[in-house]
Design brief:
The protein has 406 residues and is α/β, with parallel strands linked by helices. Helices cover 43% and strands 17% of the residues. Bound molecules: adenosine-5'-diphosphate and magnesium ion.
């Protein structure tokens, strides 16, 4: 049983949230509190596993309460609730020690799933921490997939080129690294991968492998489509309402399963920091973060890097790639690197004609026009991610050390 404490200054909200969890077998609401102060004393007394905390409360607000609870009762995992999911609030909540963020209003499924996920993650973290000896759990199957990689392609906003780059990158990885590759369209509402690869919309999608929110192991393989180029593809649902059927946890299980089967699993993520994107990023070995040489894109990149720090993502897992890097109006790559205080891992030139032609023909440009600069940039990115780039480690270190790391 997961012991949960609910904290909100509004009586109806406390009652409503308690009701939402009433039928959850695995969750026990051990208490409710109406203020930040009360939250702290209840946390000490009841020792809950998870505390759901409202960010806006009169007197001591959720952020302040979270900071104090994190100090005094660190075994409790905090989920922060707010009415708007602004990056600034998210950042403050994460800094105060919150593990997750729920934006009101949310469904009972979203609520219980978030609690379970946070609990499981916290539980795993604690077990690892408490084990004073290195874990000897590595089984044969784990060893076999050790060098398999999940590569997630992310951007804070849409239109950054995620689908274009994820799709062409999957093909380039197959070629450059001579590897087996599966491309997953995690834009569950409006997935474009099928269009870029000219796959029939009647093809099976991720939706067919998930029922009652749980992926079914035996049917998972049957939704993997073989593309004419040899890469495998898991498509997004054919219409937006299908997305509701796939929980973040289910998406994660699909990705984890594919990792056992393929050298590379490339995931085209939805834009922004939602539960689905975060869940896949947790599981990813490398995250390609797309930005452009524009003030807003750089600002969002910086905010994301701060969040990634809060989420304790290893810096080496983050691969910053500037798309349309030659289309800048006054901002130089060096300015970006100075601003984010780290070096960029790749650049991709702009070629609108080729990109549009590839979409219209349903043939990705790395296949139709491999000699084009755009295709070559993607090939280079594939080499970097696969660790097969010509640049030696020494060169890399030398280049990196020019920039101060935080
Ligand atoms: N390097 C590039 N050069 C020219 N056009 C590009 C480039 N990358 C992406 N595009 C175009 O930008 C638009 C958005 O790209 P898309 O991959 O759909 O972004 P996202 O998946 O992040 O929303 C598309 O029309 C695509 O063809
Ligand atoms: Mg897209």
């Amino acid at each position: 049983m997961i012991k949960v404490l609910i904290v909100d200054d509004i009586t109806e909200t406390r009652e409503h949230l308690t009701k939402l969890l009433a039928f959850e077998q695995a969750i026990d609401v051990v208490g409710v509190a109406a203020s930040g102060e009360e939250a702290i004393s209840s946390a000490m007394e009841l020792r809950p596993d998870v505390i759901v905390l409202d960010i806006n409360m009169p007197g001591m607000d959720g952020i302040e309460a979270a900071e104090l609870i994190t100090q005094r009762q660190p075994s409790a995992a905090i989920i922060m609730m707010s009415v708007h999911g602004e990056a600034e609030q998210l950042r403050r909540a994460l800094q105060a020690g919150a593990r997750e963020f729920l934006v009101k209003p949310f469904s009972s499924d979203e609520f219980s799933e978030t609690i379970k996920r946070v609990y499981e993650r916290e539980f795993a973290r604690r077990q690892q921490f408490e084990a004073n000896m290195p874990t000897s759990k590595a089984t044969a199957s784990v060893e076999e997939i050790e060098d398999h990689q999940v590569i997630a392609v992310f951007s804070p906003k849409g239109g950054a080129g995620r689908t274009t780059i994820a799709t062409n990158l999957a093909l380039a990885l197959q070629k450059e690294a001579d590897a087996t590759v599966c491309l997953v369209d995690a834009n569950l509402q409006f997935g474009d991968v099928g269009v870029l690869l000219n796959l029939n919309p009647k093809n099976r999608s991720i939706m067919d492998a998930v029922s009652d929110g749980e992926p079914e192991a035996d049917v998972l393989d049957s939704v993997i489509i073989e593309h004419s180029t040899g890469i495998r593809v898991v498509l997004a649902p054919p219409s937006p309402e299908g997305a509701d059927l796939i929980s973040p946890a289910a998406l994660r299980q699909v990705v984890d399963h594919l990792k056992t089967r393929f050298d590379y699993v490339v995931v085209d993520l939805p834009a922004g920091l939602n539960d689905h994107a975060l869940t896949v990023m947790d599981a990813a070995d490398q995250i390609v973060i797309l930005a452009a040489l524009e003030i807003t894109a750089i600002k969002n990149l910086r905010l994301f890097l701060e969040v990634a720090d809060q989420l304790e993502y290893d810096r080496s897992k983050l691969r910053i790639v500037i798309n349309r890097s030659d289309a800048a109006q006054g901002i130089r790559l060096a300015d970006v690197e100075a601003s984010i205080r780290r070096s960029v891992d790749g650049t991709i030139v702009s070629d609108g004609r080729l990109a549009v032609m590839a979409v219209n023909r349903g043939v990705p440009f790395v296949v139709s026009t491999p000699e084009a600069p755009l295709s070559r940039d993607i090939a280079r990115l594939a080499q970097t991610l696969a660790g097969t780039s010509a640049e030696t480690t020494d060169e890399k270190t030398a280049r990196r050390s020019l920039f101060t790391r935080r």
